Structure prediction request, 420 residues.
Amino acid sequence: MPDMDWLSRHLASLGQIGSLAAGGISRPALSYLEAEARDYIRDLMLECGMTVRLDDATNLFGRLGEPGKPIILTGSHIDTVPQGGKYDGALGVLAALACAKEIGSTDEYPLALEVVAFAGEESSRFGLSLFGSRAYVGALDLGKLPSYVDANGIGVQDALVRLGASIDSLGRPTMEQRPEAFIELHIEQGTLLRDAGVPVGVVTAIAAPTRLHVWIEGRASHSGASLAADRRDALVAAAHVIAEIESLMKREEPWQSVATVGRVRVVPNVINVVPGEVELGIDIRGSDPGSKHRLVREIDKLVARVTARRGLAARRQAVVNEEPVRMDERVVSLVDRAAQEAGVPHTRIISMAGHDSMQLAQFVPTGMIFVRNESGISHNPAEEIARVDVEAGTQVLRSALQKLLTEPFKHEATEKGDQV
Ligand SMILES: [Zn+2]
Prediction:
């Protein structure tokens, strides 16, 4: 069993980097604080006897085992949202290191173990999510990269240069060799495990966002002198749209798709002027492509219907449009078996939040282990995991890694393939 005292101690210490007086942690993507956290993780990797490597995207890797062997990759990210909690990302890296520390050496295994701390997973600083894992698999869109800037006008590339990173090869995958499998342990960011009364979730799919900007165009006019019949009030129309989006969401199966109007911009936003224009920011997430596409179509029809009825105009732009990602069934069933053998109650679940695993899954057999979140909320200082659940999750990760290191995954798959 990995050392739980070691894990708790380092979770607490890592949580001090970027900690705020008001509670919570701010370690923005590609910041000096993220770099400080990376130095902390690098020291632990060295303590675990690992060979350390930093790639051009500032992803940090620690390898247990000699070069040339195929690798099993595990880990997560070490940046946070503003005022985030101490588990999101950090737990997946530290639990992986606790497992590596216990494994000690991979000399007796046909595979080596690599632990990764991905950089810049959160989109809160630049509006670009999964930066490090995108760079790792070679999925960064270099043409669009300069458009991602933070609130101070610092771009992704500038931030990397400030950290002393070389940005010349960012368009190419920073992956040195394709791992045989990737497993990411992560705090659950919702309430499914808490509601189900089990400590561990075996993730089968990750929902992906479609984000729409919808502009409803009416006519600004004097709030006193405009009669009801003459008004072209964009905000009243928007209110109908927002309420109706909730009804559309409720028609979908729970956890298949959800839709949120998280941002409203009113023009001119003045108390004595009938609102002339409203911009809505709509985030639609789904694990089921059919359900998600239906919700997007219904929202388009809804906006057209409400605005036509009121004599208003509307236009919309999809700013993000990503497809849901399925985890590799072989990894999913391996994690199931690992949990079973470890005697840890578990259930299969869907992730409604995005993770680095979405990028990896496109190139590497990938699975995720979720650990129950006591508070049910994440991206918040209140996120919390009971120590016994940290232990249960880490035990499942340890058992899954043992299987992957001893039963070479690719061979297992090839053999199956040969039989077919
Ligand atoms: Zn995370």
